[in-house]
């Protein structure tokens, strides 16, 4: 068998370029297994914020988390808004991906919204980058079963130049 160094180098180059082009950075990567029951994950993590009932916390319940894990994050009951602040790069595609579970029939009302934060305060934060309801993302309500939420968007120049990032 004849060894062709040129073809090998081209293969390695193409293979390496795929890692550069297709790689992505995780903003959040958490399984919650290292936190104790009742821990205020949102309140104790700098990029997170909460509005409304403000009582999201870690629940420790053997085997009841996603994929039979023991811990999971439970959002506040009633009106509650979990927010995560991040900055983006023009032209980059971002993915919001997690496993969630509904315990009430609110799939049509539960909304995932990515908002551009313009100046100080919230009065001018009306530019919606992406928005969808639970039902449109996962296909309907399937109570007490873990489902995948997967939303992608590509940031534009306005998103990237936003004074305070996105949430």
Tags for this model:
alpha+beta, two-stranded antiparallel sheet, 8 strands, 167 residues, 2 domains, 3 helices, two-stranded antiparallel ribbon
Summarize the structure.
The chain has 167 residues and is α+β, with helices and mostly antiparallel strands.
Q: Could you name the ranges where pLDDT drops below 50 across 5 or more consecutive residues?
A: 5-9, 15-23
Q: Helix and strand string, N-terminal first?
A: HEEEEEEEHEH
Number of helices: 3
Strand order of the largest sheet: 1-4
Based on CA atoms alone, the radius of gyration comes out at 20 Å
What does the largest sheet look like?
A: 2 strands, antiparallel
How many extended strands? Answer: 8
The oligomeric state of the chains shown is single chain
What is the overall shape?
globular
Give the count of structural domains: 2
Strand percent estimate: 25-35%
Helix content: 10-25%
Question: What is the structural class?
Answer: alpha+beta
Q: Give the N-terminus to C-terminus distance in angstroms.
A: 57 Å
Overall pLDDT metric? 77
């Amino acid at each position: 068998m004849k060894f062709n160094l040129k073809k090998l180098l081209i293969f390695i180059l193409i293979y390496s370029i795929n890692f550069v082009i297709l790689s992505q950075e995780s903003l959040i990567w958490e399984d919650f297994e290292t936190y104790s029951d009742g821990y205020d994950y949102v309140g104790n993590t700098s990029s997170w914020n909460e509005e409304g009932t403000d009582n999201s916390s870690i629940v420790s319940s053997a085997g009841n988390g996603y994929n039979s894990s023991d811990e999971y994050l439970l959002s506040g009951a009633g009106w509650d808004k979990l927010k995560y602040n991040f900055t983006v790069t023009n032209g980059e595609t971002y993915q919001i991906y997690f496993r969630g579970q509904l315990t009430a029939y609110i799939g049509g009302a539960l909304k995932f919204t990515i908002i551009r934060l313009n100046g100080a305060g919230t009065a001018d934060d009306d530019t919606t980058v992406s928005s969808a309801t639970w039902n449109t993302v996962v296909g309907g309500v399937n109570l007490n079963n873990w489902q995948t939420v997967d939303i992608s968007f590509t940031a534009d120049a306005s998103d990237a130049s936003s004074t305070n990032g996105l949430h």
